[in-house]
Design brief:
Binds ribosomal protein uS19. This protein has 179 residues and is mainly beta. 3% of the residues lie in helices and 42% in strands.
Length: 179
């Protein structure tokens, strides 16, 4: 997977029934699209040919794969991320992009100061966050809310984003940047 940019379209979510069908949590805007991009690959290089059985509930599909022999095999795949090559996905509309396209962009504050590089886009339940690495003065990664206020500009051609890190009040009542 290292030679082509890969996009995670879903993850196996365990077995469904007793005949080797699997649940698939889709990460695509239209859930059933996760099975429509051709074979999917795992991080360790295994390939699966997904066939939609039905949509179980919003975002959760039941799929059948010839590579999954039985219920135990389907259950063992729970949590396995599924990827397709970036070039298999449709181009985003104007003013849209895939989160994976943000990874690697250099981050700068509005005054032009370097503020690291985008390592990942994560979501722990409240909102999407940019994980920035190599932030000056920081030993660990920094998380910035991925909002229009905190990230007012994205320049793919220039390979950079502009950020305005939020300011929080610390326990002593002092203002402190999000670093």
């Amino acid at each position: 997977m290292a030679d082509r940019k890969m996009i995670c379209v879903g993850t196996f979510a365990g077995a469904h029934g007793v005949r080797g069908e699997a649940k698939l949590r889709a990460f695509t805007e239209v859930p059933v699209d996760a099975v429509g991009y051709g074979p999917v690959s795992t991080e360790d290089g295994r390939r699966f040919t997904l066939k939609l059985v039905r949509e179980a509930k919003p975002g959760l599909l039941v799929v059948r794969c010839p590579e999954i022999a039985d219920r135990e095999a389907a259950q063992a795949l729970g949590g396995t991320k599924l990827f397709v090559p970036r070039d298999c996905l449709p181009p985003p509309d104007e003013d849209e992009f895939y989160y994976e396209d943000l990874v690697g962009l250099a981050a700068f504050t509005s005054d032009g100061s370097s503020f690291g590089r985008v390592k990942a886009v994560v979501n722990y339940g409240a909102c999407d966050l940019l994980e920035l690495m190599n932030v000056p003065g920081e030993k660990t990664a920094v998380l910035i809310p991925f909002t229009k206020e905190a990230v007012p500009q994205i320049d793919f051609a220039g390979g950079r984003i502009t950020i305005d890190p939020p300011v929080y009040e610390d326990a002593d009542g002092e203002d402190e940047a999000a670093t």
